[in-house]
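Write out this protein's structure.
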Amino acid sequence: MTIGAMVEGERRHVRRSELLTGGLLGAGAAALVLGLSAVLLGQARWIMLPRALPFVVWLLLATLACAMAVRTRRRLRRDGTRVRVARAIEAEHGMRRGLLVGAIELEGQGALAARAAGAARDALPGSSGLAPALRRASARRARVGVGVAAAGALVLLSATPLFGDGLRAVLRPIDAWRGALLDRPRIEGAPNELLRG
């Protein structure tokens, strides 16, 4: 296995973890916003509050999704590059700065590059995890994402039975704007003479 392939394996792990963290944070934040807006609009408060409020909730959800996408992209550009991962490996194993980065950049370009790659490979441990601190940090961020997603799901699930009409107003904002979320009133059990005309 080449030194570049070893670093690429660590890089894939970091990228997967960052993508998972971003997705979980986004889903958790969206669930929190939906649950809190269901509480705000629930128990027929959506009738009294401004009609545009469900649209504002959707605007907030879109803003959150964009913010999470930008955050994830920045983290991938900052921490998910080959050079950044190689430098983290160098720092964790006490290697001379630039040894691994230089070996990756020059790999396959002659005898001196092969010797530098061999020296870098010999300095690395044989285990699969070349950057355990980097993996722990990304796992810690993923656990935070799981916590936020679980909290958001808990808020949404606990708010839904009590404030279902508020959630319906958020999920169907056009019907909430028109006032068409409620069924038409029906008179049951009235005499037929009253129902005519």
